[in-house]
Amino acid sequence: MRRTKAVSALSLVAGASLLLSACSGGDSGSGSTDQNGSSTDVKAMAVGKAEQGDSFKLADVKGWDGTVTVGIDDGYSGYNNNTPDTNSSYNTYILTTVLEDAFVLDGNNKVLLNKDILDSVDVTSKDPQVVTYKIKPNLKWSDDAPFDCKDFYLAWLSGSGQAKGSDGKNPFNAASTTGYDKIKTATCKDNLTFETDYSEPYLDYKGLFSGVQILPAHILEKQTGIADITKLAPNGDPAQLSKAGDFWTNKWKGFDKSIMPASGPYMIDAFDANQKAVTLVKNPKWAGGKGGPAKIVVKAMEDTKAMATALQNGEIDVAASTQPDATAAQTMKSLAPQGVVYGSAPQLTYEHLDLQFNRMFKDDALRKAFFEAVDRKPIVDKLLKEVQADAAPLNSIVFFQGEPGYTDLYSSKAGLGAEAAAKTLTDAGWTKGADGIFAKNGQRASFKITHNQNSRRSQTVEIIISQAKAAGIEVKDETDANFLKGGRVSTGDYDVALFGWSSAPFKSQSRSIYVCPNNGGDQNYQNLCDPKIDDAFNAAVKATDETVKTQSYQAADKAIADKYATIPLWQTPSMWAFKGIDRVYMQSYNGALWNAGEWEQKK
Q1: Could you name the domain of life of the organism this protein comes from (predicted)?
Q2: I need a surface site. Which of 39, 115, 137, 170 has the fewest CB within 10 A?
Q3: Are residues 210 and 359 in the same domain?
């Protein structure tokens, strides 16, 4: 989920990135590999072909009249990827080439101004903070409507958290309002100038109006009868806001070609819900680079081993998996003689176990004992080493390994062993029954770990079941194919949830996952609530000094760990392989299609 959702889940963490110099080409003819089996040329594919400095645009290369079929792990569910029940990385992986963003991430997670749609983004005042966006002239949506300031305004209005409908509630059900809620007013100075005036400093402003947030305002206006969305303020006509919010929240789910145009190089031409396949074709109104195949078919393939086999058999041209699997990795690596290039890289994604505070994990001792029972190292060794040789347990929730601010907060809490876990429960008044399972006040230490249909996650739970049983805790495996997109995660319908959060390089967007639900925790599905966490995140988000900012995020990280709320398992490596294309890089937040518009055919 993205950390602006997870799972994909919405934006990740401001990352220390290995920045590579721009290069062209990308022919992987050397045949040499790194320790993970990746082609040594893969790293050179992490930058856009026309990327320069801090700017990105699609290179104008030769396209071709053909079809590329791409396999990803899960299916498309919504054109508006910004509501709790659609907010998924897998929507982002498709929409990244359909909906344009203010800023783009390359394969090194470098934040780049999108020069295909913007001339500039400038902080035009520091106190108060004002950020001004200059939109390129003559841009069009695929239905020939202008792409302009209205579209940015709708993105703010829907994400601001400030709107009030007829019932007094916010009619825009946004997965996260972080950052947008810091914008006091947003104004279209003219059709191509968008100005945002902040109520307090917000250093992560580059994370806004990105993550496929910018939707077509002209469609909403036409469908709702609202003459001009920029005249509708958050404190404006409640009836009009209700109309706008209802359409934004509910009508852009699934696929309806008539109301879902593209601002990017490709548009969605068809969606087969049964086959979980999306067909993308060139956007005839796209003003940028003209490269890439004429058609891209993106198929959901939940079994990563089957995805690898499909590549081997020529059924797909790109296998792009965020769900590392040792057997699938071995298959992909073995295809080098067929002209297949394999790559693996750490993602801005972490796999974790969320404990639901509204159920039996209200009990502090049970949370602590479960942490102590779960030994993450054998899980990582068994499931990840083939994909990433140096994979290790992740010991932070806010920071990734190697980032400034990363501190090991979990080695002293997780994996201490069955005896330690049993002692924690015994000391707290839990008693082991005749069946070997602890109980207290008639409640057995028995619960489910729920996850989507994913063989690696099933294996993860299988190992945990054995570890927990030795400690007198009963764990059951619950697989629900729709767990991540059917509303169960976003409504907190689980004992323990096993999934991944992915995010773009802005740590402020972690806030909505861990602060109290009534204090901006839009994505706090586990119902964790601690003033220490809230205070630390709030201090970090409004910090104007980078040192203070990092220290505050560290304080939030420690406060989460001290609540025994979430067990971080690992930073998830991606794995991908491709043939017939000159260069493909699995961007850690936007997937493999982030620069599909500059792919070239490789004979």
Answers
A1: Bacteria
A2: 137
A3: no
